[in-house]
Amino acid sequence: MFELMDGFLKNDPVSLQKDILHHVEYTVARSRFSFDDFEAYQALSHSVRDRLIERWHDTQQHFKKKDPKRLYFLSLEFLMGRSLSNSVINLGIKDQCAEALSQLGFEYEVLAEQEGDAALGNGGLARLSACQMDSLATLDFPAWGYGLRYQYGLFRQIIIDGFQHEQPDYWLNFGNPWEIERVHVSYPVKFYGSVKEEVVNGKKCKVWIPGETVEAVAYDNPIPGYGTRNTINLRLWAAKPSEGLDIESYNTGDYINAIVNRQKAEIISNVLYPDDRSYQGKELRLKQQYFFVSASLQDIVRRFKDMHNNFDEFPDKVALQLNDTHPSISVVELMRMLLDEEHLSWKRSWNIVCKVFTFTTHTVLPEALEKVPMDLFETVLPRHLQIIYDINFAFMEELKNKIGKDYVRLSRMSIVEEGAVKNIRMANLSIVCSHTVNGVSRAHSELLKTRVFMDFYELWPEKFQYKTNGVTQRRWIVVSNPSLCALISKWLRTESWIHDVDLLTHLKNHASNPELQHEWKMVKKINKMRLAEYIETMSGVKVSLDAMFDVQIKRIHEYKRQFLNILGVIHRYDCIKNMEESDRRKVVPRVCIIGGKAPPGYEIAKKIIKLCHAVAEKINNDTDIGDLLKLVFIPDYNVSVAELVIPGSDLSQHISTAGHEASGTGSMKFLMNGCLLLATADGSTNEIIEEIGAENMFIFGAKMNEVPKLREKESTIKAPLQFRRVVRMVRDGYFGFKDYFKSLCDTVENGKDFYLLGSDFTSYLEAQAAADRAYVDKEKWCKMSVLSTAGSGRFSSDRTIEDYAEKTWGIKPCKLPL
Ligand code: 26M
Q1: Alpha-carbon span 701 to 671, nearest angstrom
Q2: What would the pLDDT profile of 185-233 be if each residue is shown by its tens digit?
Q3: Does the beta carbon of 663 sit less than 6 angstroms from any atom of ligand 1?
Q4: Backbone angles phi and psi of 343, in degrees to 5
Q5: Which CATH number belongs to the domain containing residue 573 in this structure?
Q6: Is residue 672 included in any domain, yes or no?
Q7: Helix axes of 562-577 and 603-620: crossing angle, nearest 10 degrees
Q8: How far is the CA of 127 from the centre of ligand 1 (A)?
Q9: Residue 539 CB–ligand 1 contact under 6 Å
Q10: Is residue 347 situated within a structural domain?
Q11: 3-class DSSP state for residue 699?
């Protein structure tokens, strides 16, 4: 019998089964003769975890021995989703696990479903971090992720009478086998207090006397690479009361209060902030940011000092990646550590800081750039504010030398925003202190250079790069679409595409092959069946598999235009209603699927969710319509729902107003799974068009450069009749809730249609009609679908990460020997 062994633990089914039973008995503490699906999931997870830990240890040892330059990826959000399914794929032990379980009377797929999502993030930015961690591990890069271990992840969405309600996501309720608590890896993090000047060794020094100290405890999450033993670490910090404080109690009340107050420290890592883009300047948010940054930097500096004693070598050993501005306080914190704790000179410290940081921004909207009110800064981080002043002073001097006394420009570029309320501009701080700045698609980077950060681009053109996002094909094909994965490997006669995704392009050769097409359609059908079952369970709506499954799943936001989608559905409904019987037979049946969470405080987004339900109620119960049109809202959209929905979709919509989606990564997941895209030329779509050709997609709407003009003219131009008609239906209460929908209708009428729904409506309907026509021709549709998958290689996060490694971080692979 072959033995799959790369550590102490063997990976054959018999050994796995032994381990599973061991964990049933000793970890889960159940009888090995009677345990349920969840307990079996726990035991299996612990068996997989043991294997991860072996590889994790070997990897860390190896990195330590080789001491390469390491990348530290700092992010306040990671949307990891489930770990079991991903780990067994990357370890290459899925079949063995399935066999081991089947002999015990369990089904692997059923157990994998037991796991809840790790949802420590909001949306695109957070899932991108997770995809990038997978690629960093797979490509053997010596990388670490650092973040916060929130006790409550992103809120759960429940729908009552069509309205969104938020519920806490206490994801740790049933334990988390995928993390390792490191009680001995902990650091004090300071807040508040004051700054004093002292003389140390004859030199004047600033000393920060904190008002509060909180302990950061490490939780390590192993991230296995695919087809390699390398397993990197995602270290998340949890806040615990600091040991340092002695409780001097004079009475029981003091004693109890002292304990209660200490316990308040834990609040810092309690809950993830939902992204509403313009949410600014909250004390707890600033404390979260500093907390994770301070602990991470203490950890990083400690690791550096273990091996080196000259800080000038720091930039040769450390790259620090800022995932948006959320961790940008790190630049100031590193400065503070070098100045106040290592007693380096300003010049030397600044030199080091400028060589280690790189900054990626994920937004287009200038109003979404983070600002922190100065007095809040002064209270929470008094020493940091001083350092920011010093950085800004030096920067302003340098700038004056270059551009003269252009005070308007100087004030635009200043890190400190003057005004009634003074603010610290976190993006300006990040740009000034980073050696590279990048957007997340080519179009986005152009926008940064010509608009959002134009002044900085003029000053430092060499700092600006562009890096188009990517997603990992391991999760988005291999884990979530096993049938497609098998088909691809069969036709390419290799599994190498799983780590060399450019090989997918060879599918082009078979795109018209009837045999492949037959198999391709079968795969889609299986996935549609799975999705249809899910829809029926979640919403009670029965859908026909012959219908085109048309999907829009993403966070709900005005710029993403779910409202446009719903108005399109209303138009379709209205057309069918008014059709002759003979014409009805020609209608391509559709199932329109929408899913996504609205930020809790974003009223218009919540109204869009309610509208979707109101329209669905009407259409789905109209016996006149039957299977020709259904509308369903999928509640509580998250990573594992996406894994189910994407493979089962025929068409997916990415319809943001051009110039608003920095990149978009959902589109890439659909593309890989052979779903056709109906999209505007926004963000990364532009590059998808280049790869697979506009003829294989349904592109519509105003182009990025047309948007400003259209906006100017918007108030004077009448929206098309069809558009006014469907909005009127909503306004007049055709779907009920007349008063409630009024403010929603107001956002697209009376010259206030900022996101240009009216102006894009006609071309949207044309694109939809083109999709209908294409769907009727099954062979043509299938060919377009194959070509979508075949052209998706460029959108793998492997490509993105290789590019960052070479051009931004300057890191090289450090592979564990087999
Ligand atoms: C800010 C303040 C307070 C609380 C939360 C936030 C916040 C959290 C997340 C703000 C923005 C956040 O994420 C932005 C984001 O997800 N951007 C998306 O990033 C993707 C990956 O680069 C892109 O593909 C999307 O186009 C972009 O919208």
Answers
A1: 20
A2: 999 999 999 999 998 888 889 999 999 999 999 999 999 999 999 999 9
A3: yes
A4: 55, 40
A5: 3.40.50.2000
A6: yes
A7: 20
A8: 10
A9: no
A10: yes
A11: strand
